[in-house]
Design brief:
The protein has about 210 residues and is an alpha+beta fold. It folds into two domains: about 100 residues, Jelly Rolls (Sandwich), CATH 2.60.120.10; about 80 residues, Arc Repressor Mutant, subunit A (Orthogonal Bundle), CATH 1.10.10. The chain contains eight helices and twelve strands. Strands 1-8-3-6 form a four-stranded antiparallel beta sheet. A hairpin with a 5-residue loop joins strand 4 and strand 5. Helix 4 packs antiparallel against helix 5.
Length: about 210
Amino acid sequence: MSDADINAITAASHLARAERGESIWLSLESAGYFCAVGSGFVKMVKTTAAGQEVAHEIMGPGQVFGLLGALEGSGCPLSARAVTDVWYLKIPIQVFRPIYERTEALSAHVMRRTTIRLRQAHLLVAQLSAGTVASRIAAILLMLAESYGQATEMGMVLTVPLTRQDISEMAGTTVESTIRVMSEWQKTGVIATHKKTITLLQEKRLNHLVQL
């Protein structure tokens, strides 16, 4: 985008905050805006006929959610719920749409990113709906490593602060189960933790759990 377009979007957008567990919007709600996460995590969920919530995507700092639904005017097919306390930028679609429509490189980039995200979302749904608690937690850590991992000599360090409650919310399990699984992984050298930082020491072991 040009500097003028970026300035126009910046001037029209504003920051908002959602507390842990708060709904940012409900499924198919026409919000008139899409969002970019500044800090924290947002879970995109769909509620089944039985009333169970299934996570389709986890969006973190720097990631955008609700864009396609806003562009189409149909509303996002998924509900957006804060996994942690979240600061996010609300970007009005009426300002973004004309820029999107006349900027070929931007629209092409959005389509490429959408294809990648759909593939990741399908994998995540399969892992979270059918996997064991350990495999679900492993899937979340590996997914976060793709976007927020920094390679070091020790292993892949997740550069975003995470509590056990944050991870349990994303994986759809209890805090107690998350603590039990991750404590076992620490003992066996699969991961290392320091305060809210997690290092994946044996990614192959985690990948093996996900594929079981």
